[in-house]
Protein backbone atom coordinates (compact mmCIF):
# COMPACT_ATOMS: atom_id res chain seq x y z
CA UNK A 1 0.00 0.00 0.00
CA UNK A 2 1.35 3.43 -0.93
CA UNK A 3 2.38 5.91 1.75
CA UNK A 4 -0.20 8.35 0.40
CA UNK A 5 -3.06 5.85 0.74
CA UNK A 6 -1.85 4.81 4.19
CA UNK A 7 -1.76 8.46 5.21
CA UNK A 8 -5.36 8.94 4.08
CA UNK A 9 -6.47 5.92 6.11
CA UNK A 10 -4.65 7.19 9.20
CA UNK A 11 -6.27 10.62 8.85
CA UNK A 12 -9.71 9.08 8.33
CA UNK A 13 -9.39 6.86 11.41
CA UNK A 14 -8.25 9.81 13.51
CA UNK A 15 -11.14 11.98 12.31
CA UNK A 16 -13.71 9.29 13.10
CA UNK A 17 -12.28 8.59 16.56
CA UNK A 18 -12.09 12.28 17.43
CA UNK A 19 -15.82 12.68 16.76
CA UNK A 20 -16.66 9.37 18.41
CA UNK A 21 -14.98 10.08 21.75
CA UNK A 22 -15.99 13.75 21.94
CA UNK A 23 -19.47 13.16 23.39
CA UNK A 24 -18.19 10.63 25.92
CA UNK A 25 -15.49 13.01 27.14
CA UNK A 26 -17.96 15.89 27.44
CA UNK A 27 -20.18 13.91 29.83
CA UNK A 28 -18.43 14.75 33.11
CA UNK A 29 -20.70 12.60 35.27
CA UNK A 30 -20.12 9.52 33.16
CA UNK A 31 -16.38 10.16 32.90
CA UNK A 32 -16.13 10.48 36.68
CA UNK A 33 -17.91 7.14 37.09
CA UNK A 34 -15.55 5.48 34.62
CA UNK A 35 -12.45 6.99 36.25
CA UNK A 36 -13.56 5.95 39.74
CA UNK A 37 -14.31 2.41 38.61
CA UNK A 38 -10.99 2.12 36.78
CA UNK A 39 -8.95 3.46 39.69
CA UNK A 40 -10.76 1.20 42.15
CA UNK A 41 -10.57 -2.02 40.15
CA UNK A 42 -7.61 -1.46 37.82
CA UNK A 43 -9.96 -2.50 35.01
CA UNK A 44 -12.83 -1.10 32.98
CA UNK A 45 -15.01 -3.01 30.54
CA UNK A 46 -16.59 -0.85 27.83
CA UNK A 47 -19.65 -3.08 27.67
CA UNK A 48 -22.20 -0.26 27.46
CA UNK A 49 -20.30 1.76 24.87
CA UNK A 50 -19.61 0.97 21.23
CA UNK A 51 -15.87 1.51 21.42
CA UNK A 52 -15.30 2.01 17.70
CA UNK A 53 -17.54 3.91 15.28
CA UNK A 54 -19.15 2.82 12.04
CA UNK A 55 -17.55 -0.07 10.18
CA UNK A 56 -14.28 0.14 12.10
CA UNK A 57 -14.99 -2.91 14.34
CA UNK A 58 -15.51 -5.11 11.28
CA UNK A 59 -12.36 -3.70 9.66
CA UNK A 60 -10.36 -4.51 12.79
CA UNK A 61 -11.74 -8.05 12.99
CA UNK A 62 -10.95 -8.64 9.32
CA UNK A 63 -7.41 -7.32 9.64
CA UNK A 64 -6.61 -9.48 12.68
CA UNK A 65 -7.87 -12.65 10.97
CA UNK A 66 -6.00 -11.72 7.80
CA UNK A 67 -2.75 -11.27 9.72
CA UNK A 68 -3.21 -14.61 11.46
CA UNK A 69 -3.71 -16.27 8.08
CA UNK A 70 -0.72 -14.53 6.53
CA UNK A 71 1.70 -15.06 9.40
CA UNK A 72 0.53 -18.51 10.41
CA UNK A 73 3.77 -19.90 11.85
CA UNK A 74 3.58 -20.28 15.64
CA UNK A 75 5.93 -18.18 17.71
CA UNK A 76 6.95 -18.62 21.31
CA UNK A 77 5.96 -15.82 23.68
CA UNK A 78 7.71 -16.27 27.02
CA UNK A 79 5.93 -14.69 29.98
CA UNK A 80 6.83 -15.10 33.65
CA UNK A 81 4.28 -17.33 35.39
CA UNK A 82 4.19 -18.27 39.05
CA UNK A 83 3.98 -22.05 38.50
CA UNK A 84 4.81 -22.45 34.80
CA UNK A 85 7.74 -20.22 33.83
CA UNK A 86 7.56 -20.88 30.09
CA UNK A 87 4.43 -21.03 28.04
CA UNK A 88 4.01 -21.22 24.28
CA UNK A 89 1.37 -18.88 22.89
CA UNK A 90 0.63 -18.36 19.19
CA UNK A 91 1.45 -14.72 18.56
CA UNK A 92 1.75 -12.21 15.74
CA UNK A 93 4.35 -9.69 16.93
CA UNK A 94 4.41 -5.98 16.26
CA UNK A 95 6.83 -6.14 13.33
CA UNK A 96 4.48 -8.30 11.26
CA UNK A 97 1.42 -6.27 12.25
CA UNK A 98 3.16 -3.04 11.25
CA UNK A 99 4.20 -4.61 7.95
CA UNK A 100 0.87 -6.16 6.98
CA UNK A 101 -1.70 -4.09 8.88
CA UNK A 102 -3.18 -0.63 8.53
CA UNK A 103 -6.12 -0.41 10.93
CA UNK A 104 -4.19 -1.58 14.01
CA UNK A 105 -1.30 0.89 13.62
CA UNK A 106 -3.80 3.67 12.89
CA UNK A 107 -5.75 2.90 16.06
CA UNK A 108 -2.62 2.66 18.15
CA UNK A 109 -1.18 5.96 16.98
CA UNK A 110 -4.48 7.84 17.22
CA UNK A 111 -4.05 10.89 19.42
CA UNK A 112 -7.79 10.88 20.14
CA UNK A 113 -7.73 7.30 21.42
CA UNK A 114 -4.65 7.97 23.53
CA UNK A 115 -6.20 11.14 24.96
CA UNK A 116 -9.44 9.28 25.78
CA UNK A 117 -7.58 6.55 27.66
CA UNK A 118 -5.35 9.08 29.40
CA UNK A 119 -8.45 10.93 30.60
CA UNK A 120 -9.60 7.71 32.26
CA UNK A 121 -6.17 6.86 33.67
CA UNK A 122 -5.58 10.38 34.93
CA UNK A 123 -2.16 10.44 33.23
CA UNK A 124 -0.75 11.52 29.89
CA UNK A 125 0.06 8.41 27.88
CA UNK A 126 2.82 7.87 25.34
CA UNK A 127 3.61 5.16 22.81
CA UNK A 128 5.68 2.26 24.07
CA UNK A 129 9.03 1.39 22.61
CA UNK A 130 9.06 -0.65 19.43
CA UNK A 131 7.94 -4.28 19.89
CA UNK A 132 5.77 -3.40 22.89
CA UNK A 133 3.01 -1.41 21.22
CA UNK A 134 0.66 -4.11 19.92
CA UNK A 135 0.45 -7.89 19.75
CA UNK A 136 -2.06 -10.46 18.51
CA UNK A 137 -2.34 -13.72 20.47
CA UNK A 138 -4.37 -16.87 19.95
CA UNK A 139 -5.22 -19.72 22.33
CA UNK A 140 -7.31 -22.61 21.03
CA UNK A 141 -6.56 -25.82 22.92
CA UNK A 142 -7.86 -27.18 26.25
CA UNK A 143 -5.80 -25.90 29.19
CA UNK A 144 -4.33 -23.07 27.11
CA UNK A 145 -4.04 -20.03 29.33
CA UNK A 146 -2.20 -16.79 29.87
CA UNK A 147 -0.97 -17.31 33.44
CA UNK A 148 -0.75 -14.90 36.36
CA UNK A 149 1.40 -11.93 35.44
CA UNK A 150 1.78 -8.17 35.39
CA UNK A 151 2.06 -6.31 32.12
CA UNK A 152 5.36 -4.97 30.84
CA UNK A 153 3.77 -1.52 30.48
CA UNK A 154 1.46 0.45 32.80
CA UNK A 155 -1.67 0.47 30.62
CA UNK A 156 -3.14 -2.03 28.18
CA UNK A 157 -6.27 -1.92 26.04
CA UNK A 158 -7.44 -5.44 25.13
CA UNK A 159 -9.65 -6.07 22.10
CA UNK A 160 -11.52 -9.40 22.07
CA UNK A 161 -11.53 -10.69 18.49
CA UNK A 162 -12.82 -14.21 19.29
CA UNK A 163 -13.80 -15.80 22.62
CA UNK A 164 -15.86 -18.72 23.99
CA UNK A 165 -19.46 -17.59 24.54
CA UNK A 166 -19.95 -19.75 27.63
CA UNK A 167 -17.85 -18.71 30.67
CA UNK A 168 -17.75 -22.37 31.70
CA UNK A 169 -15.58 -22.89 28.64
CA UNK A 170 -12.84 -20.95 30.38
CA UNK A 171 -11.23 -17.75 29.15
CA UNK A 172 -12.43 -15.72 32.13
CA UNK A 173 -10.14 -12.88 33.19
CA UNK A 174 -9.25 -12.72 36.87
CA UNK A 175 -7.49 -9.61 38.11
CA UNK A 176 -6.20 -8.24 41.40
CA UNK A 177 -5.70 -4.45 41.41
CA UNK A 178 -3.16 -2.51 43.43
CA UNK A 179 -0.72 -5.41 43.62
CA UNK A 180 2.92 -4.42 43.78
CA UNK A 181 4.03 -5.47 40.31
CA UNK A 182 7.24 -7.01 41.71
CA UNK A 183 7.83 -10.16 39.67
CA UNK A 184 10.52 -11.31 42.11
CA UNK A 185 8.27 -11.18 45.20
CA UNK A 186 6.93 -14.75 45.18
CA UNK A 187 5.29 -14.33 48.60
CA UNK A 188 3.15 -11.56 47.15
CA UNK A 189 2.32 -13.78 44.20
CA UNK A 190 1.19 -16.63 46.44
CA UNK A 191 -0.92 -14.29 48.53
CA UNK A 192 -2.62 -12.90 45.44
CA UNK A 193 -3.28 -16.34 44.01
CA UNK A 194 -5.16 -17.18 47.21
CA UNK A 195 -7.21 -13.99 46.72
CA UNK A 196 -8.07 -14.05 43.02
CA UNK A 197 -10.15 -10.87 43.00
CA UNK A 198 -12.50 -9.86 40.21
CA UNK A 199 -13.62 -12.38 37.56
CA UNK A 200 -14.71 -11.01 34.18
CA UNK A 201 -16.07 -12.87 31.17
CA UNK A 202 -15.75 -11.22 27.76
CA UNK A 203 -17.36 -11.86 24.41
CA UNK A 204 -16.34 -11.28 20.82
CA UNK A 205 -16.18 -7.55 20.13
CA UNK A 206 -15.62 -6.52 23.76
CA UNK A 207 -12.90 -4.05 24.73
CA UNK A 208 -11.44 -3.53 28.19
CA UNK A 209 -8.83 -1.18 29.68
CA UNK A 210 -6.39 -2.59 32.23
CA UNK A 211 -3.92 -0.91 34.56
CA UNK A 212 -1.66 -3.78 33.67
CA UNK A 213 1.51 -2.70 35.45
CA UNK A 214 -0.03 -2.99 38.93
CA UNK A 215 -2.99 -5.32 38.32
CA UNK A 216 -2.01 -8.98 38.61
CA UNK A 217 -4.11 -10.89 36.09
CA UNK A 218 -4.54 -14.16 34.24
CA UNK A 219 -7.01 -16.13 32.13
CA UNK A 220 -8.84 -19.16 33.48
CA UNK A 221 -7.63 -22.02 31.22
CA UNK A 222 -9.80 -22.91 28.24
CA UNK A 223 -11.78 -26.04 29.17
CA UNK A 224 -12.52 -27.44 25.73
CA UNK A 225 -11.67 -26.86 22.09
CA UNK A 226 -12.40 -23.19 21.61
CA UNK A 227 -10.64 -20.19 20.17
CA UNK A 228 -9.60 -17.01 21.92
CA UNK A 229 -8.00 -14.28 19.84
CA UNK A 230 -7.08 -10.90 21.27
CA UNK A 231 -5.29 -7.76 20.22
CA UNK A 232 -3.32 -6.14 23.04
CA UNK A 233 -2.28 -2.50 22.73
CA UNK A 234 -0.09 -0.96 25.45
CA UNK A 235 1.05 2.50 26.49
CA UNK A 236 3.50 3.96 28.94
CA UNK A 237 3.21 7.16 30.97
CA UNK A 238 4.50 10.22 29.14
CA UNK A 239 7.58 11.78 30.78
CA UNK A 240 6.89 14.95 32.75
CA UNK A 241 6.57 17.92 30.46
CA UNK A 242 6.12 15.73 27.41
CA UNK A 243 2.36 15.26 27.34
CA UNK A 244 1.27 13.78 24.06
CA UNK A 245 -0.97 15.95 21.87
CA UNK A 246 -4.51 14.77 21.39
CA UNK A 247 -6.35 14.62 18.10
What keyword list fits this structure?
globular, single chain, 247 residues, three-stranded antiparallel β-sheet, alpha+beta, 10 strands, Jelly Rolls
Task: Give structural notes.
- This is Fe2OG dioxygenase domain-containing protein.
- The protein has 247 residues and is an alpha+beta fold.
- It has a single domain (3-237), classed as Sandwich (Jelly Rolls), CATH 2.60.120.
- Helices cover 34% and strands 20% of the residues.
- The chain has 7 helices and 10 strands.
- It has helices at 3-26, 28-41, 56-70, 94-100, 103-108, 111-121, 186-193, and strands spanning 43-45, 90-92, 125-127, 134-139, 155-162, 172-176, 198-201, 207-210, 216-219, 228-237.
- The strands form 2 sheets. Strands 1, 2, 3, 4, 5, 8 and 10 form a 7-stranded antiparallel sheet that branches. Strands 7-6-9 form a 3-stranded antiparallel sheet, with no helix packed on it.
- Helix 1 (3-26) packs parallel to helix 6 (111-121).
Please give the structural blueprint.
Elements: H1 3-26, H2 28-41, E1 43-45, H3 56-70, E2 90-92, H4 94-100, H5 103-108, H6 111-121, E3 125-127, E4 134-139, E5 155-162, E6 172-176, H7 186-193, E7 198-201, E8 207-210, E9 216-219, E10 228-237
Amino acid sequence: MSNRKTGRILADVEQQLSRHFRDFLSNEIRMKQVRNSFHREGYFHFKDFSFLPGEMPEALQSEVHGLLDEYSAGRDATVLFIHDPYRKIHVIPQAEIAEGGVVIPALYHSGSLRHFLGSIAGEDLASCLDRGQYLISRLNHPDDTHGWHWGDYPYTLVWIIEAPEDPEGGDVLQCVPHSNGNKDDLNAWEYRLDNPGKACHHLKGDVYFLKSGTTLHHLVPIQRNATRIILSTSWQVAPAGEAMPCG
